[in-house]
Amino acid sequence: MTDLGERTLRREIEENRRSERRLIPQALLAIVVVVALVVVRQVFFL
Amino acid sequence: MIEWDGVLYGVMVTVLAVFVAFGAIPVLAMAYQFLLIPVHAVRNHYGRAAPYLPNVAIIVPAWNEGAVIGVSIDRLMALEYPEGALRVYVVDDASTDDTPQVVQAKAREYPGAVFHLRREVGGEGKAHTLNHGIRHVLQDDWMHALLIMDADVIYLPDSLRRMTRHLADEKVGAVTAYIREGSRDKNYLSRFVAFEYVLSQIGSRRAQNVLGALACLAGGAQLHSRTNLEDIGGRIDTSSLAEDTVTTFETQLRGRRVVFEPYAVVLAEEPHAIGALWKQRLRWARGNVQLTARYRKVWFRPSREHRLGSISFGLFWFSVFLLPCLMIASSIGLIGLFLLDSQLALTVFRALWIVAACTYVYTMLLAAQLDPATGRSSWREAILFPGAISIVVMITAFFPGLIEERIPALFGLQFTDEALVAWTLFVYSWVSLSMLAAWGAKHLDSTRPGRWLCPLLVYLIGYGPILCAITFDSYVKEARGAAMVWDKTEKTGRVLG
What we know:
The structure holds 2 protein chains of 2 kinds.
Chain A: H1 6-19, H2 23-44
Chain B: H1 4-36, E1 56-62, H2 69-77, E2 86-93, H3 99-109, E3 114-119, H4 126-137, E4 145-149, E5 154-155, H5 159-164, E6 172-181, H6 188-211, E7 221-225, H7 226-231, H8 243-253, E8 257-268, H9 274-294, H10 311-321, H11 323-340, H12 342-370, H13 372-377, H14 379-383, H15 388-398, H16 402-410, H17 417-445, H18 450-461, H19 464-480
Parallel strand pairs in B: 1-2, 1-4, 2-3, 6-8
Antiparallel strand pairs in B: 4-7, 5-8, 6-7
Helix pairs in contact in B: 1-6, 1-10, 1-11, 1-12, 2-3, 6-12, 9-19, 11-12, 11-17, 12-15, 17-18, 17-19
């Protein structure tokens, strides 16, 4: 049985809160790819 | 002297350009939602969440769920949750299979934790079934929180406790989880659904968390505090086909928050055939038509009590609700402009589809990272979500000359003027034609050749146009006043344990 003590549950909340920080680099990576495509368009297709 | 021909021409061009601009609304709304997702890194509910393990009553509506209900109960009993703080009430909606026997056997196996509630007259719909169970659990004070789920879904062991922690904040009335497609034998359609859920749940619902207004608690995973349940009347709405959304709205209209918890994962079996998907989604879409009218005094009216009236939330809601109309308006605008001023039509077409292409690349790349496992198993469906043809249209707009000149030139070919006009008209009208094609795919799916033709067709036309066509169908059904039938989605116990 998993320990459901207060300390464990608090740590889990904190871990999940910190995991959400990954959203920023993930979004930035997606934006970088979009910008790269726009650059390709500007350089080779206009 | 006014030149009326010139004025008329100017008015027509302006009107048609506005029509095209309608097509940009859902694209910009999607981009806006997905740009809000990284904000969830700093604006989320974890700061107010706390260890909290209340007594939870789980209500499971069941009609002929003999194939899946036993495993579901075992999984619920195996949840990482304090012993004695969990009770499962299976509301058997006059099942004609072995559901009663299976549930009664489980009640003996888990005495005091599993209960069988029988409705002798069933078939009135999920809300009536849930209300039978809710009346029962509200009779005493044991229950502190109520979990509403479906019989066939599987909660991962840590999912419930990840939901209850948000109820430690008294301002939160309800919490929902991430429903992940969990079939063992996924086919092309269930992989599309899997990726759709990444977009619509761990994507869009994070954005809605940021805004403080949630569109819908997932029917298979909604946890309510007792106070909230009593405040919304101690019952689930039975007058619409979207009882989950009514509950979500009523909670928020009373000033309570609804939180989406992305780390609470619930596995569900989703349709493997277009006909079944159409039936399920038509019910949801008709429910949304009904609710759009019911809550007409909520939209675009900011309030201190709730965020449902915010401009952003209204934009999200109506960009989905009106999607077919906006797509058709966009096609009419482009073709009309082409007839009046083909160069202007080309300019606005490129502007519209370049924005669409950038949004598509950004959302798909971000979504694939949000749930890497689904991103890996559904990578083809992620790429082809808008359909191969729409991707060609995006390439046509994004890389001018590539499709019309450079690629044919590689094979020593050249578009004739007539072919170029035909291609242009096809490209301008594709967003509307794709809905017709989706309707065709639905009918083809039930035929023998459809078994192998349909996957190919859906990869070509995309999954998005199917949802769009279903929304259009919901307008028609509601306008005709078609009977509100609560069609249960057929489940076969495909979900992974």
